[in-house]
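Researcher: We plan to redesign the surface later, but first we want a full-length starting point. Tokens attached.
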């Protein structure tokens, strides 16, 4: 019996080590008595029921982490592997009697752009629906739309068919599932919020690492149409299973239930989206954070979408181009987890500033020179270096962004601020990514690789603008309620 008890305790300890501090700290923050009562009271004993409740919370947090990772792995992984389809569709554009015959790179890129943009444009509505109904239901609906869009795309006969299915519908399905995952997860964590979101959003990189070569192999063996059908079927199984685990943190759920109980009509909360409190929206730190989100997201997806096609201008094969996407996504996953962990110790805003600056420096130091270097070997080396650095540091912004919102605006404003700023990010990518695609052709004044010079210049300028914006956010975070600057290192 003692051996069994010891084994059980060790299992619970191992299972809950990552989550226990967060659950306990969250409960203390939300339910702690006034300081005077704590100081005068004798140390309370831990009741068995309380221990059981903590263990149950640990398990639920673990399940939600795995489920959210699965959703991000599937939805974002397939979206981030669009570069594989971009390369295939561009090849087909030079062949007669295909859905893409005569289409420009920018027109083809619009498929992936719409999907990525819509992934976050509908964020305020998804957050409202997840609160009005349940996160599980909204994620489930998204899973069905996501898989259906890929299968419907496989029957496309014209470019606009793919723009509607693999673009619009895929983006809507991703939004419903992805936004649920990144919105409910932060409510379960406090001390390790950065690491938790790093693990979950690393599903983007790991998903791209897996999906990019898998889709390339499927396309080579069975054609792009059957590859779309296969991806849709696999995604359905993974996303539906993960959707059933989606749930609000208990204290957050209780607050949401009170809000729902105060609603005056059934339509309230369905069409009415959470609006950011004007007292929050008018602050300089909100404006700075919004500007940073616009600049960063406007160009963030450009390298990811064009890795494969740009690699071909440097003499690489289609398979090697797919491997560049996989390499970037592998670095993406490593960066989100490692930097997420470091952010919990160094400060999430500090990490946001550092990673945004490094991603801008990597672009101007490596990608831009690779487009104008006259030596092929030098250009290849610069591009490989850029792929690694951009994958590690640019992707960290995505993981740190929601965690920084909690730090800046508080958990009580998180849902509304998160929804609105994610919508802003989606709108920015909807504008910036097509512009980058157009610049590829409009700046074709030299060899094949120089045709990307304009796009790399745009990426460089906006990433540096994003860097200045997040530095502004960091400064604003040190200003107290009295308007005075208080020097703080860990933010």
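Model: Full-length starting sequence:
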């Amino acid at each position: 019996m003692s051996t069994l008890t010891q084994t059980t305790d060790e299992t619970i300890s191992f299972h809950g080590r990552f989550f226990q501090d967060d659950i306990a700290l969250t409960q203390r923050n939300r339910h702690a008595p006034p300081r005077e009562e704590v100081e005068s009271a004798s140390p309370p004993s831990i009741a068995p029921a309380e221990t059981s409740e903590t263990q149950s919370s640990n398990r639920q947090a673990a399940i939600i982490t795995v489920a959210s990772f699965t959703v991000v792995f599937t939805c974002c992984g397939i979206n981030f592997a669009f570069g594989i389809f971009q390369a295939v569709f561009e090849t087909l554009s030079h062949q007669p009697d295909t859905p893409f015959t005569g289409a420009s790179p920018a027109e083809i890129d619009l498929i992936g752009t719409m999907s990525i943009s819509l992934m976050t444009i509908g964020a305020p509505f998804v957050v409202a629906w997840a609160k009005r109904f349940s996160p599980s239901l909204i994620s489930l609906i998204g899973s069905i739309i996501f898989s259906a869009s890929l299968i419907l795309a496989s029957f496309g006969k014209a470019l606009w068919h793919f723009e509607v299915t693999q673009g619009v519908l895929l983006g809507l399905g991703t939004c419903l599932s992805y936004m649920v995952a990144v919105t409910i997860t932060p409510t379960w964590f406090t001390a390790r919020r950065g690491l938790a979101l790093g693990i979950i959003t690393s599903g983007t990189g790991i998903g791209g690492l897996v999906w990019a070569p898998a889709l390339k192999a499927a396309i080579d063996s069975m054609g792009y149409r059957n590859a779309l059908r296969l991806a849709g079927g696999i995604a359905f199984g993974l996303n539906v299973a993960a959707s059933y685990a989606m749930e609000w943190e208990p204290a957050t759920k209780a607050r949401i239930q009170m809000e729902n109980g105060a609603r005056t009509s059934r339509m309230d909360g369905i069409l009415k989206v959470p609006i950011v409190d004007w007292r929050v929206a008018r602050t300089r730190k909100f404006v700075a954070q919004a500007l940073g989100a616009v600049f960063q997201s406007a160009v963030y997806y450009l390298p990811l979408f064009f890795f494969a096609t740009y690699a071909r201008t440097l003499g690489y094969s289609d398979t090697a181009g797919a491997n560049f996407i996989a390499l970037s996504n592998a670095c993406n996953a490593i960066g989100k987890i490692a930097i997420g962990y470091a952010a919990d110790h160094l400060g999430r805003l500090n990490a946001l500033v550092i990673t945004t600056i490094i991603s801008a420096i990597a672009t101007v130091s490596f990608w831009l020179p690779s487009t104008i270097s006259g030596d092929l070997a030098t250009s290849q080396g610069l591009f490989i270096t850029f792929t690694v650095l951009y994958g590690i540091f640019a992707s960290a912004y995505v993981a740190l962004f929601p965690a920084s919102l909690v730090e800046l605006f508080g958990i009580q404003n998180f849902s509304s601020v998160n929804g609105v700023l994610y919508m802003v990010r989606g709108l920015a990518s909807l504008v910036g990514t097509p512009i980058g695609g157009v610049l590829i052709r409009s700046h074709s004044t030299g060899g094949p690789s120089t045709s990307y010079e304009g796009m790399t210049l745009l990426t460089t300028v906006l990433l540096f603008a994003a860097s200045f914006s997040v530095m502004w956010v960091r400064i604003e975070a040190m200003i107290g309620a009295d308007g005075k600057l208080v020097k703080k290192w860990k933010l």
